Amino acid sequence: MERRTIFPGIALPMLLVLPQLLLTVVFFLWPAGQAIWSSMTRADPFGIRTQFVGLENFADLFSDPLYVDSIGRTVVFCAAVTALSMGLALLLAVYADREIRGRGFYRILLIWPYAVAPAVSAVLWILLLHPQIGLVGRWLNRAGVQWNYKLDGTQAMLVVIVASAWKQVSYNFIFLLAGLQSIPRAVIEAARMDGAKGWFRFRTVVLPLLMPTVFFLLVVNLVYSAFDTFGTIQALTQGGPGKATETLVVKVYRDGVVNLDIGSSAAQSVVLMLGVIVLTVLQFRFLGRKVAE
């Protein structure tokens, strides 16, 4: 029998909801409104004079080949970070879900990286991969590999992808492990008794039951790779060499904070926000339907 809580009036429910509404308005709706307004204006670097220009900032953006290149670069970066972090997390979760000695200790070690700040994570990767002071970087150069991500754009993109994915593996691992543990063991045993083994059992039995968690993580990783990787990229490469690792969120910072072009930076942030919203809706529209089936 379903039980419902009934309030005698609307004052108490509104009072309970008010803190969340205030947080949403102050930290999301108001900044989003300010960004939309700024995207339709042009101001001098000191913000003294402001001119309303409508959609001119957006027109200038999509006529700029550098901005179009940054869109393609961001798509590749987000896809690579999502695939790498989720794939590695799923592999680790499958092994951590097995009956092995010390698995609790292994789980703790795998969760720890999520508590590391992006800037600190970047410093760790610098100490590993820097061509002069990095342990792995110096070893690669001694082995004859021309390793210098400070000068090679492909290597720089590889470094920021690996560093960003490593930071997110722990988050994905937590949810995937919880998803695996929620699968009834009776189902796994029944599949094993029917002769399903190894990869075939995982693909036909475990993965379909894990799809709601995978779908949720796809959305979360998309948002993470589009927005939350700024600290890692900025600390590692500052968007360089050249513009090889300048994703959309890095370009927003560079144009707005460094170059003081507030109108263009705001327009870029609006485009980025709309892009993530559209991709998230498409994921819910198509992937969500398959999960429900």
TrEMBL record:
It is found in: Cell inner membrane; Cell membrane. Keywords: Cell inner membrane, Cell membrane, Membrane, Transmembrane, Transmembrane helix, Transport. Residues 71-283 form the ABC transmembrane type-1 domain. One of its GO terms (cellular component) is plasma membrane. It is a multi-pass membrane protein. Gene3D superfamilies: MetI-like. The chain crosses the membrane at residues 12-30, 74-96, 108-128, 156-180, 200-224, 266-287. GO terms for biological process: transmembrane transport. Pfam families: BPD_transp_1. The complex is composed of two ATP-binding proteins (UgpC), two transmembrane proteins (UgpA and UgpE) and a solute-binding protein (UgpB). Part of the ABC transporter complex UgpBAEC involved in sn-glycerol-3-phosphate (G3P) import. Probably responsible for the translocation of the substrate across the membrane. Belongs to the binding-protein-dependent transport system permease family. This is sn-glycerol-3-phosphate transport system permease protein UgpA. It comes from Limobrevibacterium gyesilva. The gene is ugpA.
